[in-house]
Design a protein that fits this description.
376 residues, Lyase, Ornithine Decarboxylase, Chain A, domain 1, TIM Barrel, alpha/beta, 11 helices
């Protein structure tokens, strides 16, 4: 196992697993469909630079981000591929996105007008993907009233914008296939009303779960995120290769007798003589606090329970049944122990959330230690 000798806790990320997950997606959609890896929120918290460097070898069509800054960060590291910003932008961030040659998404006529005005001032012709709201609700032109916005959009498309794409976002592909069919039909309804759509207009809607559930809807491009990063995409769907493991060192070992209490609120009390090991990780690192008295870790080859409340910087496990544990030993909070495994999804479920929030919740205090990177 590769470790960082200075760190008290860290995340290990396997570049080879990221590549395998990409290949799995590629196999699913075939060679013709463009793949747009979503690398927003620092590559789902794992490190966008390493993610892009790893996936560039697989030759994706472009990249998906959420903000202008995320797109510009990719430009700074030399990414020349198309980069699509999936949240609507206004004002100064829109100017910066245009200056960085980022592709934009528009969700309203007002948004479209601002894009056109600002692009004109900067002497640019913006690359635009039109967002259609087919049920997600948070952004996009309303699919039911295309006649109220489509004519203006088509007019703009003929002179002031490069109309690159047309897309929607799925709300329940991980659990409800019917909803995907409905959203697809709504998108098709709008598409059918286009007069002289631009050549090669790129239609895209599938996220990771949609991609496995309804690969027939892959259209021109797909936008996978969580599967690449090792998150499950629904029951009875393929599992990704895990690429993340989370480790923390033992920073203290203590022996206690019956009645000793542990942590804030003294929510744990020793039943008899026990041994406790304190790990150098807490919710300040992004370990969900709700794992207190519920989660577990691997230490000394054994699964040990997290006891007491997790504090900002420390977490305690019960090592009464583990013969030899010393300060400096490494515990695994996500990862494998022989055939046993604690996955990101296991942690998310225990914490009452989703893998996405667990991954993006890890803070800067935790080094991301990548293994198997190209050229390293
Ligand atoms: C985040 C995001 C995705 C990726 O979704 P996953 O469920 O992580 O695969 C796709 N499209 C858009 C617009 C997104 O914001």
């Amino acid at each position: 196992m590769s470790t960082n000798p200075q760190a008290r806790s860290w995340i290990r990320v396997r570049a080879d697993a990221l590549k395998q997950n990409f290949s799995r997606l590629r196999d699913e959609v075939g060679p013709e469909t463009r793949i747009i890896p979503m690398v927003k929120a620092d590559g789902y918290g794992l490190g966008v630079k390493q993610t892009v460097r790893t996936l560039q070898a697989e030759d994706p069509w472009g990249w998906g981000v959420a903000t202008a800054d995320e797109g510009l960060e990719l430009r700074e590291i030399g990414v020349e591929d198309p980069i699509i910003v999936f949240c609507p932008l206004t004002g100064e961030s829109l100017d910066r996105a245009l200056s960085g040659d980022l592709q934009l998404t528009v969700s309203s006529l007002m948004g479209l007008d601002e894009v056109i005005t600002r692009a004109y001032k900067l002497d640019r012709k913006p690359h635009v993907h039109v967002d259609i709201n087919t049920g997600m609700g948070r952004t996009g032109f309303d699919w039911r009233v295309a006649s109220s916005w489509l004519p203006r959009l088509q007019e703009a498309a003929s002179d002031s914008i490069n109309w690159v794409g047309f897309f929607t976002h799925l709300h329940s592909a991980d659990e409800d296939e019917l909803s995907v069919h409905n959203q697809w039909s709504r998108l098709q309804e709008v598409l059918a009303q286009l007069k002289n759509p631009p050549d090669g207009l790129m239609v895209h809607l599938l996220n990771s779960s949609g991609l496995f559930r309804t690969p027939d809807y892959a259209a021109a491009a797909v936008r996978p995120g969580i599967f690449l990063y090792g998150g499950e995409v629904g029951v009875d769907q393929p599992s990704p290769v895990p690429l993340v493991s989370l480790h923390a060192r033992v920073i203290h070992v203590g022996e206690v007798s019956e009645g000793y209490t542990l942590g804030y609120g003294a929510t744990y009390r020793a039943d008899g003589p026990e041994r406790w090991a304190t790990l150098g990780i807490g919710y300040g690192d992004g370990l969900p606090r709700s794992l207190g008295n519920r989660g577990s870790a691997f230490l000394g080859g054994v699964r040990v329970p997290i006891i007491g409340r997790i504090s900002m910087d420390m977490t305690v496990v019960n090592i009464t049944d583990v013969p030899k544990v010393a300060v400096g030993d490494i515990a695994t909070l996500i990862g494998a122990n022989g055939p046993e495994r604690i996955t990101v999804d296991d942690v998310a479920e225990l914490a009452g959330t989703i893998s996405y929030e667990v991954l993006t919740g890890f803070t800067d205090r935790l080094p991301r230690v990548w293994t198997g990177l190209n050229g390293s």
